[in-house]
């Protein structure tokens, strides 16, 4: 262990530096089109040296396109990019890296079987001469370089650890080190907190501030207002490809940022609570799932009743995804029973479970959730050609939906959910992530199944769409359906769930009613701490510590640094 980033977490709370200084990067009138879609239109952006600049905007606002141009992944159609005052034209990311840029993408680009140090130096290895004069990778120098960078920026890292065994937070630190090793002076972080626990977010913010203080220019792409307010010095807001707001963060307020992003003020959805829940739509009893080596779900029991939202909190990789997969029937349980609407489906096929009244918003919207090479219209109907959406004129003949019905259903969903697309014939793979998610959510809710499993339903989705999706989920519950909501966002669970269960090391280690649930309690249980206030809802205090002990070697996602 090289250093403890969390020691510096307090730094993150410090007020940002005054916004002035030399422009490290200027984008002047930058534009980009994709066919008829104007992704960026005359965007001006100035990134000052040694500051943290947040780039905010709704899904499809044009943030990724802008960053892709800055990093040389896309060529601008118009405008100019200047680095240190000089105009640049990047032929690709290598040119951008050579000019001092680094980018940490949402989806990490690391080699799982290689060590942290090997990943960091890959492609830019320190070398030494062997006895025959041949150059070898100098592993000692690589380790020393990683240690030196990690210490300088407060990145908690073990150079020898194998990347495949690390948590999302630790992998992200490797990506940041990779950029720093290549002497990035301008660091672009694309939605970096999406995969982190609250304490990892604090550590990341401390690293960001430290890097800025050392002179690095940091660009933070995010949807999250509290993050912008907590860590940035300046904010640029995009809407429909144009700049709609520029603020010094110290002068900005949350509502102002929301207005710039959406053009309107929005209210946060609060969990209004339910009446008395009805019959159980899902009952899971003593469920375990093995990956062949160990139990990734351990003796889980829970029930979801009509008119109830049950939330599952947890750092990703603690068995939530496998629990959902076992309920869906895409993987087998090694022990336990699953009942849907009172019927035992433990050995039923996915199709039979869906037919019994199960809808699902999957986590992997690009893989399981949608077919990227199909149009919005085809996706909207996917998996439901044999059943009509509630209230739609069916257009179904002999079990198949007519093309006309498919298109009109898609147009209605596009309107209802404000999906930003050039039309229902656009390929879903070319929609922004948030807009693709809206198509999946709309499709799954349109059929009124008594049980909905929603896995990260608003991940990567902007505030406006979060509000819309939360509202739909609450309506869905109010209509007498049950929802199992798996989320990394504690605020989402607090806003929606009637009960929050926390998974850690494959087991449920804490359970809170809506009244008992707080960010601190859920966050502590997610990090593997025993429920501080003693037994809650029949879950033993200390169960979490047992889970740590039992799952210590078996839990690859919580790295030792995070546990310490
Ligand atoms: N390769 C592409 N082909 C066609 N359209 C595209 C392509 N890439 C982006 N777009 C469109 O350009 C617009 C801007 O997309 P972009 O991905 O830059 O937005 P974003 O703000 O990053 O959104 P999100 O937060 O959802 O990722 C969107 O309407 C999107 O559908």
Notes on the protein architecture:
- This protein has 564 residues and is of the alpha/beta class.
- Helix content is 32%, strand content 25%.
- The protein folds into 3 domains: 5-110 and 182-262, Rossmann fold (3-Layer(aba) Sandwich); 268-357 and 449-564, Rossmann fold (3-Layer(aba) Sandwich), CATH 3.40.50; 366-447, no CATH class.
- The strands form 6 sheets. It has a 6-stranded mixed β-sheet with strand order 6-9-10-3-11-12, sandwiched between helices.
- Strand 1 and strand 2 (37-48) form a beta hairpin.
- Bound molecules: adenosine-5'-triphosphate (ATP).
- Residues 34, 37, 39, 57, 59-65, 420, 430-434 line the site of adenosine-5'-triphosphate.
Provide the fold topology:
Elements: E1 23-34, E2 37-48, E3 52-57, H1 63-70, E4 78-83, E5 86-88, H2 93-98, E6 101-104, H3 116-121, E7 127-129, E8 135-137, H4 139-153, H5 168-181, E9 186-190, H6 198-213, E10 217-222, H7 225-231, E11 234-239, E12 242-248, H8 254-262, E13 280-290, E14 295-305, E15 308-313, H9 320-328, E16 335-340, E17 343-344, H10 350-355, E18 358-361, H11 365-369, H12 376-381, E19 396-397, E20 400-401, H13 403-417, H14 433-445, E21 451-455, H15 463-478, E22 482-486, H16 490-496, E23 499-504, E24 507-513, H17 519-526, H18 543-551, H19 560-563
Parallel strand pairs: 3-10, 3-11, 6-9, 9-10, 15-22, 15-23, 18-21, 21-22
Antiparallel strand pairs: 1-2, 1-4, 4-5, 7-8, 11-12, 13-14, 13-16, 16-17, 19-20, 23-24
Bound molecules: adenosine-5'-triphosphate (ATP).
Residues 34, 37, 39, 57, 59-65, 420, 430-434 line the site of adenosine-5'-triphosphate.
Domain ABC transporter: 25-265, 282-530
GO molecular function, one term: ATP binding
Keywords: ATP-binding, Nucleotide-binding, Repeat, Transport
């Amino acid at each position: 262990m090289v250093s403890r980033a969390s020691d510096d977490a307090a730094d993150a709370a410090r007020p940002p530096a005054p916004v002035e200084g030399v422009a490290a990067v200027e984008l002047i009138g930058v534009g980009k089109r994709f066919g008829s879609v104007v992704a960026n239109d005359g965007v001006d952006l100035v990134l000052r040296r040694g500051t943290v600049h947040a780039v905010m905007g709704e899904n499809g606002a044009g943030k990724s396109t802008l960053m892709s141009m800055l990093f040389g992944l896309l060529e601008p159609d118009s405008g100019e990019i200047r680095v240190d005052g000089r105009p640049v034209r990047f032929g690709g990311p290598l040119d951008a890296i050579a000019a001092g840029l680094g980018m940490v993408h949402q989806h990490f680009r690391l080699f799982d079987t290689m060590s942290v140090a090997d990943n960091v130096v890959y492609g830019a290895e320190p070398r030494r001469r062997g006895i025959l004069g041949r150059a070898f990778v100098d592993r000692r120098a690589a380790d020393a370089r990683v240690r030196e960078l990690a210490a300088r920026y407060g990145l908690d890292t073990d150079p020898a650890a194998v990347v495949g065994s690390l948590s999302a937070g630790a992998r992200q630190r490797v990506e940041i080190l990779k950029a720093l090793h290549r002497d990035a002076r301008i660091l672009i972080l694309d939605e970096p907190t999406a995969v982190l626990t609250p304490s990892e977010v604090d550590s990341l913010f401390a690293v960001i501030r430290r890097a800025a203080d050392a002179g690095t220019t940091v660009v933070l792409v995010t949807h999250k207002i509290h993050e912008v307010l907590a860590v940035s010095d300046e904010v640029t807001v995009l809407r429909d490809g144009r700049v709609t707001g520029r603020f010094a963060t110290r002068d900005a307020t949350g509502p102002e940022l929301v207005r710039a992003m959406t053009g309107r003020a929005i209210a946060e959805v609060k969990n209004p609570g339910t009446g008395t829940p009805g019959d159980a739509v899902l009952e899971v009893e003593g469920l375990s799932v093995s990956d062949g080596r160990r139990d990734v779900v351990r003796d889980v029991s829970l029930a979801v009743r009509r008119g109830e939202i049950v939330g599952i909190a947890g750092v990703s990789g603690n068995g939530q995804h496998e629990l959902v997969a076992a309920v869906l029937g895409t993987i087998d349980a090694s022990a336990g029973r699953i009942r849907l609407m009172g019927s035992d489906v433990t050995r039923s096929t996915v199709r039979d479970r869906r037919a019994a009244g199960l809808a699902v918003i999957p986590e992997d919207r690009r893989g399981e959730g949608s077919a990227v090479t199909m149009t919005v219209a085809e996706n909207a109907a996917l998996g439901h050609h044999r059943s009509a959406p509630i209230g739609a004129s069916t257009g179904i003949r002999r079990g198949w939906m007519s093309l006309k019905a498919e298109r009109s259903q898609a147009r209605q969903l596009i309107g209802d959910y404000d999906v930003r697309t050039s039309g229902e014939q656009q390929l879903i793979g070319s929609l922004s992530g948030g807009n693709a998610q809206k198509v999946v959510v709309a499709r799954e809710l349109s059929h009124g199944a008594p049980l909905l499993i929603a896995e990260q339903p608003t991940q990567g989705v902007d505030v406006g769409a979060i509000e819309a999706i939360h509202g739909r989920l609450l309506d869905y519950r109010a209509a007498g359906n049950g929802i199992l909501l798996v989320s990394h966002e504690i605020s989402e669970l607090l806003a929606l769930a009637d009960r929050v269960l926390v998974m850690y090391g494959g087991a449920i280690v804490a359970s809170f009613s809506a009244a008992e649930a707080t960010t601190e309690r859920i966050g502590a249980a997610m990090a593997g701490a025993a429920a501080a206030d003693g037994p809650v809802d029949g879950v033993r205090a200390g169960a979490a510590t047992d889970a740590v002990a039992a799952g210590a070697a078996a839990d690859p996602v919580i790295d030792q640094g995070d546990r310490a």
